[in-house]
Amino acid sequence: MTHFDDSDAMQAASLSARAMAARPMPYLEGLNPAQMQAVQTLDGPVLMLAGAGTGKTRALTARIAHLLAQGKARPNEILAVTFTNKAAREMRERLGRMMGEAVEGMPWLGTFHAICVKLLRRHAELIARQVPQGGELREIHLKSNFTILDTDDQLRLLKQLIQAAGIDEKRWPPRQLAGIIDHWKNRAWTPDKIPAHEAQAFDGKGVALYREYQDRLLVLNACDFGDLLLHVIDILQANDDVLAQYRRWFRYILVDEYQDTNVAQYLWLRLLAGGHKNICCVGDDDQSIYGWRGAEVGNILRFETDFEGAEVIRLEQNYRSTPHILGAASGVIAGNKGRLGKTLWTEAEEGEKVRLIGHWDGDEEARWIGEEAEAMQRGTRGLDPYSLDDMAILVRAAHQMRAFEDRFLTIGLPYRVIGGPRFYERLEIRDAMAYFRLVVSPEDDLAFERIVNTPKRGLGDKAQQTIQVMARANGVSLLEGARLCVRSKTIGGKGGKALGELVDGLDRWRAEMLDGRDHIRLAEEILDESGYTAFWQNEKTPEAPGRLENLKELVKALEGFENLQGFLEHVALIMDNETQAEEPKITLMTLHAAKGLEFPVVFLPGWEDGLFPSQRSMDESGVKGLEEERRLAYVGITRAEELCTISFAANRRVYGQWQSALPSRFIDELPEAHVEVLTPPGLYGGGFGATGMAAAQQSAMSGGVESNLQDKASKADVYNSPGWRRLQANASRPIRQPTEAKNLTIDASAVSAFGEGDRVFHTKFGYGDVTGIEGDKLEVAFDKAGTKKIVGRFLVPAAQAGEVPF
DNA sequence: CGAATACCGTTTTTT
DNA sequence: ACGGTATTCG
User: Which residue range or ranges hold the UvrD-like helicase C-terminal domain (predicted)?
Assistant: First the structure.
């Protein structure tokens, strides 16, 4: 066994650490007393309770700098864990800036998963299982070149196991089983540790399937994301020598976003921090919003008892938001029980109150926010103009974004959506990666299954089953099975020929790779010769051009790596889609995605009971669920630096059905002193001056809407919540009216660019025909997406977008 | 085998 | 309403 071969290096490292001795400490400059304490309390357990916007990353990086400068540890002796690659990258960059060239490395700064992969590659052999194979039990070890499965592979595997067990897939879908296994893994429960009351899961067969799944993974030499952590815990628990080694090695441990840790991560940290207890956890119990995926707020609440003698340091001075915004946020979060408690304060100017406005329906809400954003862009009511980059709309659920997208496309307001599938989990990227995987590891059966009929090669279920049978009968991989099928003509005809070509292609690419051919060229060749590129070129869906674009990006991403193997090693964990700065855009994202971000101007729409707080959350998790929703509200408000606008709609289309709702109970919890109620025109006798064209337009619109909506709730019902009435009584200012004459400004270039009957392309809606022109907006009948009104600058002539007539 | 149709589910998401 | 998937039909 060779897993201790780094120990000499460790010794050397800690010796010269002391030699580094004290140096000037510029990184301490400008820290407030609490931050200073958090930075300088180096030994023993520390809980840094860092409220929103209190400079936690700054303190964290300064702390690392201090550890290094004080000679307490060398860069490779500090374990610094984050949840996301983004957070890890940010910390690394900041540290680099702070320390100059002094730190190269920090090899152990990374996500839980990235660090686990590193550890697991060293000690994979220590993971062993008795797996039934060919009628007897065989001990199988994990090998250090294991592959990391994506969710798709995982699901396919589970589906196979469910089918093999003769379970009805309809009633017991693989997704559900994946969820259950994930839940168990979050708790660090291996198959033999599932408590009795949970063993009934999945028709009583969950545990058995879990066990089979783990067996299969080992045979495939693969891990899912949960395993990365679980295996490392297993190794540390079962091998005292390894544990002791790492406890000595990681002299100081730092953990970011501690409130998001699950049980497995907690156990992992406890194991590693067990000796010296030099662990500093940073977090905010009020921002724990990931309970639904296994995060345990309890971890942070229990910190002081878990780590005896822990020092708790509160960061409470906020550098982000105005007093009104902080006041509103504090008022809401005060409704939660069992908090560790913090009082945020700021030296900032009072600023604007949080604004609250109700709308008749979701479309009107989107319309109002769109116009408000445009007004802020120009500068309104004596406020300086804001860039669209300074504004964000934060929603509870992704489907709320649609109303905004539709509206913004119509008025031509540039927007950007954060979230959605990450680059590497997109269909085309995973397909391409499967090809690469298969070239690098021909025995990767999951990759083979993925691409054997992608692009279509005339190899359907039947042919694929034949390959499976052949492979199993001969005890070889699917690729080899396929080769046998071709040779023996078991699969003949068109499909057989195509399969033969695929097998030959894979052989050829692999040979080229082993010859040391340039991996970028090779990647291009693989995608071209396999027909994958052509497949998307022939596809006429609106997504196709984007997918080809992504494939190009994928090949470009290869530049950063030595070879295909190296690329595949890292890609599953590291790749995200970095969006490059373009023209200013308003940002649209979920509240969850907004955690850790900040914007001068924030809109929080959809504050209606049932939507936010989410009914489902309350049904499933009761008070705990409601409290998590409340923390989400807190997170949302505290994203705002200067101006925060909360809104709700009385009526909303949900799953195609109009539904009315009451204003969110969180609205009732907003302290009056920090809130200004904007009065919607027309709702209270229309006493506010709607004038001229804008008013006419407004009433025309609501009239049109209303007539279609007989079943909507009456206004009186809707605006009757106690909190809303209380706040309404305080209403100070009429709503800003839609801006005069906007529709008279016509973008001449847009008008002249297209004519009726033109064939056009839109990146979201695909191809369509121009059926009408109104001012600067075009009415386009899209082939797939229906008829939309769109500003000309979002459209491209179809021929230019690559559509081939007929 | 591949295209047309029936059916289902529908909060939040990282690695 | 809608989009993804599973089944059915040609």
Answer: 323-596
Nucleic strand B under 7 Å from the C-beta of A620: yes
Residue A233 in tokens: 């815990």
Å from A472 (CA) to C4 (C1')?
A: 32
Closest by CA to A631, choosing from A338, A317, A318, is A338
Q: What digits encode the pLDDT tens for the residues A472-526?
A: 889 899 999 999 988 888 887 888 888 999 999 999 999 999 998 899 999 999 9
Give Dmax (Cα) for chain A.
86
Please report the DSSP string for A570-610 in residue order.
Answer: HHHHH---PPPP-S--EEEEEHHHHTT--EEEEEE---BTB
Measure, in angstroms, how far nucleotide C4 C1' is from residue A795 CA: 27
All domains of chain A in start order, with CATH: 8-108+251-315 (3.40.50.300), 121-233 (1.10.10.160), 354-414+579-652+664-730 (3.40.50.300), 425-571 (1.10.486.10), 750-797 (2.30.30)
Question: Is pLDDT above 70 for A233?
Answer: yes
Task: Answer yes or no: are the C-beta atoms of A154 and A226 closer than 8 Å.
Answer: no
Q: What is the nearest nucleotide to A291, using C1' and CA?
A: B12
**Cβ of A396 less than 7 A from strand B:** yes
Q: Which nucleotide is nearest to A593 (CA to C1')?
A: B13
Q: Which residues of A are annotated as a binding site for ATP?
A: 50-57
Does the CB of A225 fall within 7 Å of any strand B atom? yes
pTM: 0.80
Q: How far is the CA of A285 from the C1' of B14 (A)?
A: 19
Interval A596-627: pLDDT, tens? 999 999 999 999 999 999 998 988 888 999 99
